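Troubleshooting: if your tokenizer reports a length mismatch, compare against these two reference records.
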Amino acid sequence: MNPLDRLRAVCLGFPGAYEKVAWSAPTFRVGDRQFAMFVDDHHGVGFAGVWLKAPEGAQEELVAADPKRFYVPPYVGKGGWVGVRLDGRTSWKVLAGLLAEAYAGAASTQSAARIARGPANRSAAAKPRPRRRTVR
């Protein structure tokens, strides 16, 4: 199984989690919050990885403990997200635990009803938008 398929199996196993392509990449979300993003050779780095939402302080600890495995990703790294290289040495058990933490953090900001409804754009797409009138 390739890394994206394995990642997808873990992420979509969480209640209410769904996949959405954003920035030309598969992202994984719960309610209206993203908790992980798959990247493949992003900006020519030469490897596939996953960026995930990490609890406060975890990014620094993980990168310091194993800088060959964990890294500060561009764009979202300043917000505490951590990058994880996906290759033959990936511990999927450890990664599943990190993804569970990322999911829990994103889900904690959502109501159970919001999670159960799924993607926000599903209900918005079904409703016609009201027309605006120009006032003169």
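Reference record two:
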Amino acid sequence: MDVAIGYHGSRRAAAETVRQLAAGGARAVALRADLADPRAAGRLVREAARALGGLDVLVNNAAIFVRTPLLTTTAATYDRLLDLNLRGAFFTSQAAARIMRSGHIVNVGDADASGRWPNYIPYTLSKTGVVALTRALAVALQDRNITVNCVAPGAVLRPPGFSRARWARVTRGRPVSVEDVVKAVVAYATCPPTVTGRVRRVDGRRRENR
């Protein structure tokens, strides 16, 4: 596939990804956008389609993850999490649905966003919302032959500052590999039209489709 990379602050990483894709024989472009802005979200999708001559697959994986204790979280932080993680996925999907004649939308959720993280409530709301969005879009776009599915990874990359002992506790010694997540995304990006509205957990501690 040819690939458009949407980025906000990671210009160098996006450029390097484009270079690697081009070295592998794909056409690739990097397009900057703040997906918390609905206008920018729609514009990114339209620019990607123009640059590549069409749109077959949309992967909604833009998100931020920050600690938000209940008593100190500001409205601005709450809005930023919901606007980027959930509203951004809605408006990129809306723009894609206007362009695609058929295709696939793959949303990226979180296997651990179950409401049990009291210091990450806005993030949890955003990711559980992504699951609800996936199922609603699957119904809304079925007549357009656009599948909508969700990949929900567990812990994948050890964050800076995490000790190996702490990481082992979080992952129970079974972190998810990047390759496992990629395989799940590719599977939904190439699945038959009858496979839609599904959530696939990619979690070293437990794996299931539902």
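Descriptive notes for reference record two:
- DSSP finds six helices and seven strands in the chain.
- The chain has a mean pLDDT of 93.
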